[in-house]
Each structure stands twice: as C-alpha cells, then as structure tokens.
Amino acid sequence: RLYQIPFEMPSCEEPSESRTLHLVGDFSAPAEFFVTLGVFSFLYTMAALVLYLRFHSLYGENKKLPMADFCITVCFAFFWLVAAAAWGKGLTDVKAATRPTSLIAAMAVCRDEVVCGAGPTPAMGLANISVVR
C-alpha cells in the first residue's frame, strides 16, 4: 500500500514551504497471498507431523489417508509456486515505484532549473531473498 507512504517535496512557489506527496501503487495482494500461504503451509505441516508421529498406525492402515496427504501436498506446492511468482512480480513493481529516479521525475520542482540528485538506491537484498525462498 505505497499510496499510504508520504514524502515531502519543496514547493516551487514558496521555497520555505513543502508539499506532501504520496507514492503510487498498492502491491499488498501478492505479499498477503505469499504470507497467508506460508502460514497455512506451516499449520498443515504441523498437523501432518502430529498425524505421522502420534497416529502412525492410523496412517499405515488407512489407504485413503496417504493419498489425501499427497494431494494436499501437491496443491500446496503448486500454490507456493504461484505465490512466489506473484510476490516476485509485486516486488519488481515496488522497486519500480520506489526507484529514486522515478520519484525525482514526479517532482515538479526538479523539472525546472533546479538540479535534483537521486541519492543511493534503497537496499532490497532481504526482499529479494524472500522471493528466492
């Protein structure tokens, strides 16, 4: 929800005043899907672990239980792939929306005779690692 993040920009008319601008974009859906799927995967893994360790005989006797476990695991693997791809695209969009050169291009004060410097690019290493996982 980048639209909730404000940043200050100097005013062209009155240099002592500043205007508050907001970033553009809402990339929360892919992130929420990724995190929700991770939580459900963890909960299913804990439930399956209890089933494997505590009710091992039930798991061995019932022929439908291993097949259901396999189908649920395949579904989680597929949705994990989809969620990782969605979060990867969402992260790319966040990077594009928060690139310093993009922000400077949107500032009216930097279009005139004023020279604006972009500064360093934000570190996105941990966000990149979250997609790889």
Tell me what you see in this structure.
By secondary structure, this protein is mostly helical. It has a domain at 27-96. It has helices at residues 28-54, 56-61, 64-98, 100-106, 125-132; strands at residues 6-10, 18-22. It has a two-stranded antiparallel sheet with strand order 1-2. Strand 1 and strand 2 (18-22) form a beta hairpin. The longest helix is centred in the middle third of the chain and has 35 residues, at 64-98. The protein is rod-shaped. The two termini are 23 Å apart.
Offer a quick outline of the entry.
This protein is mainly α and about 130 residues long. It is built from five helices and two strands, in the order ββααααα.
SSE layout and pairing:
Elements: E1 6-10, E2 18-22, H1 28-54, H2 56-61, H3 64-98, H4 100-106, H5 125-132
Antiparallel strand pairs: 1-2
For the structure shown, list the relevant keywords.
two-stranded antiparallel ribbon, single chain, rod-shaped, 133 residues, mainly alpha, 2 strands, 5 helices, 8% strand
- What is the straight-line distance between the termini? 23 Å
SSE series: EEHHHHH
User: Strand fraction band?
Assistant: 5-15%
- Arrangement of strands in the largest sheet: 1-2
Radius of gyration of CA atoms, rounded to a whole number? 24 Å
Low-pLDDT windows of residues: none
Shape assignment: rod-shaped
Helical stretch tally:
5
- Number of DSSP-assigned strands: 2
Summarize model confidence as the mean pLDDT.
78
Instruction: Assign the structural class, choosing from mainly alpha, mainly beta, alpha/beta, alpha+beta, or little secondary structure.
Output: mainly alpha
How does the major sheet shape up? 2 strands, antiparallel
Helical content (DSSP H or I, runs of 4+): 55-70%
